[in-house]
Records
---
Amino acid sequence: MSDIAGITLKQLRAVDAVARTHSITGAARELGLTPPAVHTQLKGLEDVLGCRVVAKGEKSGMVLTPEGELVLQAQRAVDVSLKSCLNQIDAMKKGLAGRVVLGVVSTAKYFAPAIVAELKKTLENIEVQLNVGNRGEVLQALVERSVDIAIMGRPPRQPAVVSKPIGMHPMVIVAPPDHRLAGLDRVAPDAVLDQTFIAREEGSGTRILMVRYLDRIGEGKPYETVEMGSNETIKQAVIAGLGIAMISQHTVTEELRAGRLVALNAPELPIERQWYVLHHEKLELTPAMRSVWRFIVENSHRFFPSLE
Amino acid sequence: MSDIAGITLKQLRAVDAVARTHSITGAARELGLTPPAVHTQLKGLEDVLGCRVVAKGEKSGMVLTPEGELVLQAQRAVDVSLKSCLNQIDAMKKGLAGRVVLGVVSTAKYFAPAIVAELKKTLENIEVQLNVGNRGEVLQALVERSVDIAIMGRPPRQPAVVSKPIGMHPMVIVAPPDHRLAGLDRVAPDAVLDQTFIAREEGSGTRILMVRYLDRIGEGKPYETVEMGSNETIKQAVIAGLGIAMISQHTVTEELRAGRLVALNAPELPIERQWYVLHHEKLELTPAMRSVWRFIVENSHRFFPSLE
DNA sequence: AATAACAATTCAGGAAAATTTAATGTCGGA
DNA sequence: TCCGACATTAAATTTTCCTGAATTGTTATT
């Protein structure tokens, strides 16, 4: 059988032009060539295929042979494939299509899915993957390029990242409503330090913040810590009376509103921090990533839980 | 948007090879080229598309960019289109696919459809069109190339055709069973000439044959003719007692067997003629036509009606 | 029937493109 | 830090492609 390797798009385009104009001269005009050039292309194709592709028509003009009609069909299919490819690439260039991996810290999982859902509605041809991990894991993923854009609290010194604040992020200490410190106007530092703290594992942003906070108000005084792997577990533990915990208010909005947890009026609380969106300094953002970035910067505030 | 006109199959094939080997050198080996050649092709494509298509992979080797993946998809689609086209053309070359117009004289319509049906079962990718006309019309169509292959009695002197006999074709004179000449061992020429003849129109092969037969046995004596446009009408007319008719035995097999018509034992009857398959001498047969020709020559005998 | 008009086809020469060889740059692994 | 493999660039060469001119063939016209 004749080999596919000898076929060129020029040949197919020549066939198409001849089919439409019924003349080599006309085809040449369409293609911006001279008739001999078109003729050569057709001849070359006929050589490869081992059969005629065009022939003189009944009265006048050139018409496709049955084989030529098959070639024309193929040409049309090829054309569609290539056009579709170009369109998709074009969409990519404009940031309307592509794939973006979004990494968020555990705490953000209470609002990030809502952002992603809205994002997918707005930019339907961008495939967004949401990865959740603790602060350390997300940063590591950012370095390894397995995450393109991240959302977390305070951006790190290392690795070097580009970051932008996107909204307030209050941190509170929560206790069960029947806790003895609950409802007090002012809770003394020592009273706080006496409690058992339920905290996330090392590498968690909340854990780091908590340690620094307790060291500051307690001036280095020791305190007791119980470690748990997820915010959800911590909430349940606090409700169950195992201890108190520093936690993102966004994580416990529902429980505070329902009265299943209360925020303690300990010194400096709530700590008003910010949410940041960030990406690795070295990573050249694709248009799709830029679209996602912009969307997050402009719209994420709508998704932060609030007590009111 | 980047223009489709700048894309070549060489470029697509280069992308494909790189995708499979993860290296320009490897791709070059696959394509029987040197690495710079492949590199140039990729560069050219990237110019047209306005974006990178391949890039150095994480560790080593070359990988496709997301845009490159789209190009690869397109390449695969193009490949199947072209392969399918080549396969179809190949089938055409082998006479396994194509389009053939078969022209048959009216008389042959009593067995031609059966041939076509069997033909389509055997050569399922050949599209067969069956056209029915009288002898003159079929010959005209043969000249005009609107019929590729024809089946009829005696091939004409003009136009020049290639012909081959495919089976016996007895002509008889039929009468109603209660006709006074019916059942006689030997019917005299004069008794025949006295009858009213129901005949097809001018241009019909049967008509020509009848005229020559009657002139021969009657030595020029006149006779009476009534003209009717189809064999079916003639049969009904004879059954109704309007007259007698010379007709192909194949046309009246059913009626003879059932006794609704009888063949007269007039001189020289039945006239043993042949069926012929034929095509215009000037027309180069396509492989598909050759397949059909061969099928008819080898198989048509199975479809002739017989009295036994 | 001769001829004019037009389009396909052939061909030679030259332009453009593709490919190769050779040289250079770059990265990962010993 | 050197070595080797490979990508990349540059320059030279080969191949392909295109054009313009000439030729052939066909159709329409006189």
---
Amino acid sequence: MGWKFSDDVPLYQQIMDGIKQRIATGDWAPGQKLPSVRELAVEAGVNPNTMQKALAELEREGLLYAKRTAGRFVAERDEITEGLQEEMLQSYVKEFLDNMESLGYSLKDAAALLQRMSQQEERKGE
Amino acid sequence: MGWKFSDDVPLYQQIMDGIKQRIATGDWAPGQKLPSVRELAVEAGVNPNTMQKALAELEREGLLYAKRTAGRFVAERDEITEGLQEEMLQSYVKEFLDNMESLGYSLKDAAALLQRMSQQEERKGE
Amino acid sequence: MGWKFSDDVPLYQQIMDGIKQRIATGDWAPGQKLPSVRELAVEAGVNPNTMQKALAELEREGLLYAKRTAGRFVAERDEITEGLQEEMLQSYVKEFLDNMESLGYSLKDAAALLQRMSQQEERKGE
Amino acid sequence: MGWKFSDDVPLYQQIMDGIKQRIATGDWAPGQKLPSVRELAVEAGVNPNTMQKALAELEREGLLYAKRTAGRFVAERDEITEGLQEEMLQSYVKEFLDNMESLGYSLKDAAALLQRMSQQEERKGE
DNA sequence: GTGGTCTAGACCACC
DNA sequence: GTGGTCTAGACCACA
């Protein structure tokens, strides 16, 4: 109901983000069964095809998995291949550091920056 | 030369980002004349039209200006170029944190990770 | 159909003016769906790319907006479309007065001329 | 010296406008001899080629005329073929009225509008 | 079918 | 040689 969609980013991605958030916040717990594609589609007010694509994509990312006839479930953390995760982690970090370096920041600078941001966030949360 | 283009974001936007970076890092100074559209196009390995579009967009953003027959120039230090570096920094950090989050890491985790990497590097350097 | 293009001003700008006019006159109402890029292109007898550029520019100006797969629409009555008619009126008057001036006629002369024409027309109608 | 040139309209046209203005204001009287191309060029701070083009264009428009070796002169009003002027006048008026009509204004409306503008101008001048 | 992006190649006005 | 415009035709993601 409270769905607001932007016009310059694909619908299915916005849906993916919404679902990711529900999982991140624990709204949908690991192992939990998801509503059917059709139900989710009407809830979001989109075409079932679009919802289907969003879920398929999330499955590809390892956040969901499907049991053929039983439905879709939120993945357990372990189900994402640990090796793959490590690999992606490194590529993300490398990309970030390369970018920072292009702006003239060293690894040390980057670490300090994030440290500061983290502490700020903590204070806000209190 | 060292141009690597991703496949899921428009070429002309990636070019824009590259140029923004050169300006942000001072590689291209305010008032400086840019190579011609055609030269930039061959350097990047894209069609002149694509380069043209990227430059036109940057002009619209106020980062460049064109003297019709003399060439294109980096805008003089108005507030526009001033904030550029800060803006790019934020976009890099946001992208990194989004990626980390998709792997299940929080800002705090990311900060801790970089901290560790930084300390390792320091020890190595001694 | 009734498209006449001048040779010394870019096609895409003339197209923009034509569309602005249709919107200003209410021929195309706010919220209304436009024909597709391709349709408009053949109607105007120009390349789809050129029409695309014109529409993209109008979108940048806020007169149109695009739903990526659904089509393009005239913007809802924000202040933007409101001022359009007034703006076009002024540009037409300015163009006329500039032309008259180039022939040696002042604003006063132009006003007198139209006044005379108007009275003639009135007499004819009686 | 006090020359300011815009970047998005051809230099030679801006120069033409400047000269037209000098003629319109009587700064340069009909029959008067103009300075040489070179002098005008340095005065305006442009390339002699550009000044040459501006003057040639004004000649084509009938505002100036050249006596082969004696130099260039401001045209007498009568030297512009009267018939041609009438023809242009009509085309300008027609274009204006067409434009006004497209916005929903009649000839009468247009006449009234200019009348009002003229009176405003007069009051300002007092 | 919709908008958006890209290439290849041409032509133009301007200086 | 410079930026700018235009065409023709292709391909893509999205719904």
